[in-house]
């Protein structure tokens, strides 16, 4: 069982800090509403878990009798339990697969898919790097693939037109959801990566390293790049249909592939209708969806996505 | 595991005029609180022993688990360190090499400056100046190592090495970490060496000067050899500190374990790996988790050996006056 990514560990801290503020401001809010109680069981992707945890912490401020447990068995493991009727909510970093949905159907589990945030990673290089404005996913894979260890050591090994500047790589530590996502999107397999790079759980190490070395490259969450856009340069990514710059807009629209993706929660219809605490929690989740996304340092939904999520929620209520 | 740093013989205990009589009287007139006090004091003495035993047990047990899966030879001679990657490899040589680089660079800074400061303070400075300088030097030892680490990363690398010396250097490198490590252990070496030099009896200096040697000759050929055991102990203690220092290398030396031949590049040290991996999320009991203890045990053994060498050295070349 994998635990939550370090990158998003900051989120609960941020949540706790904002809760203090919220509690201070919202002292007189409807006290009668906190009447639901019971258990809400969530399981699934370790990437989505910080979002559900953030939602849980905010929700419990008003509904302290509800216990929301957020486990992280991975997207696949989460669906396994979900379709066996063992959980109410499944966190997923990809849409449910047909064969997984078939199991759900077999067991009579009806569900709704709700998009809760966008996940996006940024590849960064030194501002003095004037050759790598846009890289194809193949070039990124050439740089980061397991076979490249000890082989691809210079930019000219990536593309003969690039200068012979040594590569200096900074990436996510192997524990993090960022590492899982990046290796899956770029190298085609979760966890497949060369190991001769500076692996760090601290994004600031990457900022320092890439900012201080001409041939350096690193990657981390898009929201972290926004704070450091003056010392680093974001690389545009070409996945076959032209170069796309990473931004909140391109992540929301899905143009920035493969390094952006929507994140989902799957809600069991039966749980929603039979358990008032699940209904209350999911309603709260969707109503505060972008606030939660920002607290957990993800890219929030655009208006269209929010509309879709609200429609999905409405279909549950109906 | 502390090193005996005194250069003089053990001071003789003063006893009363009639020790036998006094002792037996004390023995018979035991007061009620005394037993409790004795237990507390005995406990205090035993605590450090128990803590050491506890640490060894805590290190050895997971390390044994580790060596059940990874052979001793692969661990000690392997040159690829990638314990958390899909293609796992547990060769600890890159980490040991990283530690060796930072320690050697640190000593290149600390030994000349530390001994120079000690000789100046003990042999040349006026008592007034010495009264001021020594506490200031010792103050340097009180700077938290995280501050030194930040200093290495934010000042030594970009301004001193890159801008001032014009070096082509990676942002994380063992050179800056080693230099700052050296600065950190200067007070240790200087202060202890100064104690050793000052403990050399003045009669030796006077004798040397009387037969016509100048001050430099006296210092180098008479006082220095006489204080050698204390100085050696100071240097070895400095080495122990350099090997075990964590914060500086974790901040400034980088997180990439590799066999480097060039100190302008970054390399992870043993302590740097422990600091990084201990804050990660490896499940307790997993091979990745036990790796921490294997490296910790190796570090423990290395410092133990260094300290044993130091004790042997002090015994061997000690001169009593």
The most extensive interface, with participating residues per chain, is: A-B, 27 and 24 residues
Structural class of chain A: alpha/beta
Instruction: Tell me how many strands of chain B there are.
Output: 2
Number of strands of chain A: 12
The CATH architecture of the largest domain in chain A: 3-Layer(aba) Sandwich
* CATH topology label of the largest domain in chain B: MetI-like fold
Question: How would you describe this structure to a colleague?
Answer:
The complex is a heterodimer of chains A (318) and B (321). Chain A contains 14 helices and twelve strands. By secondary structure, chain A is an alpha/beta fold. Chain A folds into two domains: 6-118 and 262-317, Periplasmic binding protein-like II (D-Maltodextrin-Binding Protein, domain 2); 120-253, D-Maltodextrin-Binding Protein, domain 2, CATH 3.40.190. The longest helix of chain A is centred in the first third of the chain and has 16 residues, at 10-25. In chain A, strands 1, 2, 3, 4, 6, 7, 8, 9 and 12 form a nine-stranded mixed β-sheet that branches. Chain B is an all-alpha fold and 321 residues long. In chain B, strands 1-2 form a two-stranded antiparallel ribbon. Chain B is globular and about 70 Å long. Mean pLDDT of chain B is 87; it is low at 1-19. Classes of the chains: A alpha/beta (318), B mainly alpha (321). At the A-B interface, strand 7 and helix 8 of A face helix 6 of B.
């Amino acid at each position: 069982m994998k635990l939550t990514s370090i990158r998003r560990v900051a989120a609960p801290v941020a949540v706790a800090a904002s809760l203090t503020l919220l509690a201070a401001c919202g002292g007189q809010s409807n006290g009668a509403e906190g009447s639901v109680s019971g258990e809400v069981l969530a399981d699934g992707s370790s990437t989505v878990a910080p979002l559900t945890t953030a939602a849980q912490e905010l929700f419990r401020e008003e509904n302290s009798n509800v216990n929301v447990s957020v486990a992280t068995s991975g997207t696949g493991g989460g669906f396994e339990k979900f379709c066996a009727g063992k959980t109410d909510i499944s966190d997923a970093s990809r849409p449910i697969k047909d064969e997984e949905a078939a199991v759900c159907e077999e067991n009579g589990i009806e569900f709704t898919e709700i998009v809760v945030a966008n996940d996006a990673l940024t590849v960064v290089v030194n501002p003095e790097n004037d050759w790598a404005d846009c890289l194809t996913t193949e070039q990124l894979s050439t740089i980061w693939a397991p076979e490249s260890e000890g082989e691809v050591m210079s930019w000219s090994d990536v593309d003969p037109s690039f200068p012979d500047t040594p590569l200096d790589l900074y990436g996510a530590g192997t524990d993090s959801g960022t590492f899982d996502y990046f290796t899956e999107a770029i190298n085609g397999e979760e966890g497949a990566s060369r190991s001769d790079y500076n692996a760090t759980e601290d994004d600031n190490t990457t900022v320092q390293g890439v900012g201080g070395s001409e041939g350096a490259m690193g990657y981390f969450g898009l929201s972290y790049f926004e704070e450091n856009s003056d010392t680093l340069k974001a690389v545009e990514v070409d996945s076959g249909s032209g170069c796309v710059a990473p931004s909140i807009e391109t992540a929301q629209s899905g143009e920035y592939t493969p390094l952006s993706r929507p994140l989902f929660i799957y809600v069991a219809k039966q749980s929603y209708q039979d358990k008032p605490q699940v209904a209350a929690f999911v309603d709260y989740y969707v109503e505060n969806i972008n606030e939660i996304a920002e607290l957990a340092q993800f890219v929030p939904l655009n208006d269209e996505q929010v509309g879709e999520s609200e429609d999905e929620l409405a279909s549950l209520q109906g | 595991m502390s090193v005996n740093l005194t250069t003089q013989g053990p001071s003789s205990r003063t006893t009363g005029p009639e020790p036998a009589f006094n002792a037996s009287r004390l023995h018979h007139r035991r007061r009620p609180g005394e037993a409790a006090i004795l237990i507390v004091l005995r406990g205090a003495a035993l605590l450090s022993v128990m803590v050491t035993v506890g640490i060894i047990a805590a290190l050895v047990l997971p390390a044994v688990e580790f060596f059940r899966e990874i052979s001793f030879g692969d661990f000690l001679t392997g040159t690829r360190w990638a314990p958390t990657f899909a293609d796992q490899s547990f060769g600890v040589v890159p980490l040991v090499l990283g530690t060796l680089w930072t320690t050697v660079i640190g000593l290149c800074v600390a030994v000349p400056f530390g001994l120079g400061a000690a000789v100046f303070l003990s042999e040349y400075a006026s008592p007034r100046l010495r009264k001021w300088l020594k506490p200031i030097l010792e103050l340097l030892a009180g700077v938290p190592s995280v501050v030194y680490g930040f200093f290495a990363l934010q000042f030594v690398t970009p301004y001193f090495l890159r801008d001032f010396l014009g070096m082509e250097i990676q942002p994380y490198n063992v050179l800056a970490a080693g230099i700052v490590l050296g600065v950190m252990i200067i007070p240790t070496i200087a202060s202890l060496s100064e104690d050793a030099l000052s403990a050399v009896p003045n009669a030796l200096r006077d004798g040397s000067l009387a037969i016509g040697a100048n001050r430099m000759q006296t210092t180098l050929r008479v006082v220095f050899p006489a204080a050698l055991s204390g100085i050696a102990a100071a240097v070895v203690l400095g080495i122990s500190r350099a090997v075990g220092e964590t914060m500086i290398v974790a901040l400034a030396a980088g997180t990439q374990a590799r066999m480097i031949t060039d100190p302008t590049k970054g390399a992870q040290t043993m302590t740097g790996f422990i600091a990084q991996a201990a804050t990660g999320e490896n499940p307790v009991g997993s091979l990745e988790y036990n790796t921490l203890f294997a490296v910790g045990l190796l570090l423990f053994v290395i410092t133990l050996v260094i300290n044993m060498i130091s004790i042997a050295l002090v015994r061997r070349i000690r001169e009593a006056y």
